[in-house]
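2024-03-11 09:14:02 INFO worker-7 job=invfold-0412 stage=load source=structure_tokens
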């Protein structure tokens, strides 16, 4: 366990400077665009959410597509052994059965995609349904790319399900937050009108 954790850290730690550099570059580009005038309706909070979404996408690409070569992974396993299209089989056939640890990976995946769903829905003003569709496509795309990247990652329908569920949950939170902020701004308008009279 300790060895695999150190291998995991050494595999992904090298990408941190790249992510930080790209994050700064994207932030500068967005700042310049905002200074020159973004399209109408793109407030500072939406620009920030867009930056967070781009950063999230880059992080997900590193975590899901770098592969496991640095952790001893290889192409030794044939593709037929890596593909599992039976929903939830990974949960119910885990070594510990349906126990707490068998839910850790699904919960991590759901949480990871919920963050993406939240910032994407906030930045692009997507509905829960639209976010779920976009994250369905994203999940399928990631699994397809994992068939060709170096490593021995498993390609499962469960990962797509976690992506859709996480994205929808994040969008639900974004929708609730937007709903809370609207009455406050809407209440200010009648007050301003009555003051003008």
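2024-03-11 09:14:09 INFO worker-7 stage=emit residues=197
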């Amino acid at each position: 366990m300790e060895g695999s954790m150190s291998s995991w850290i050494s595999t992904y730690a090298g990408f941190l400077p790249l992510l930080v550099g790209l994050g700064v570059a994207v932030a500068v580009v967005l700042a310049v665009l905002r200074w020159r005038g973004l399209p109408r309706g793109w407030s500072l909070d939406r620009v920030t959410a867009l930056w967070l979404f781009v950063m999230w996408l880059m992080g997900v690409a590193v975590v899901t597509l770098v592969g496991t070569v640095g952790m001893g992974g290889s192409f030794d396993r044939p593709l037929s052994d890596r593909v599992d299209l039976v929903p939830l089989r990974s949960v119910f056939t885990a070594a510990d059965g349906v126990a707490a640890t068998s839910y850790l990976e699904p919960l991590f995946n759901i949480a990871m995609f919920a963050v993406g769903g939240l910032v994407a829905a906030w930045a692009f003003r997507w509905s829960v349904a639209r976010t779920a569709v976009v994250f369905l496509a994203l999940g399928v795309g990631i699994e397809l790319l994992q068939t060709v990247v170096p490593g021995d990652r498993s390609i499962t329908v469960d990962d797509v399900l976690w992506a859709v569920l996480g994205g929808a949950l994040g969008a639900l939170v974004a929708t609730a937050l937007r709903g809370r902020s609207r009455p406050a701004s809407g209440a200010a308008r009648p007050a301003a009108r009555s003051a003008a009279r």
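2024-03-11 09:14:09 INFO worker-7 stage=report msg="Residues 1-8, 69-73, 184-197 have pLDDT under 50 and may be disordered."
2024-03-11 09:14:10 INFO worker-7 job finished
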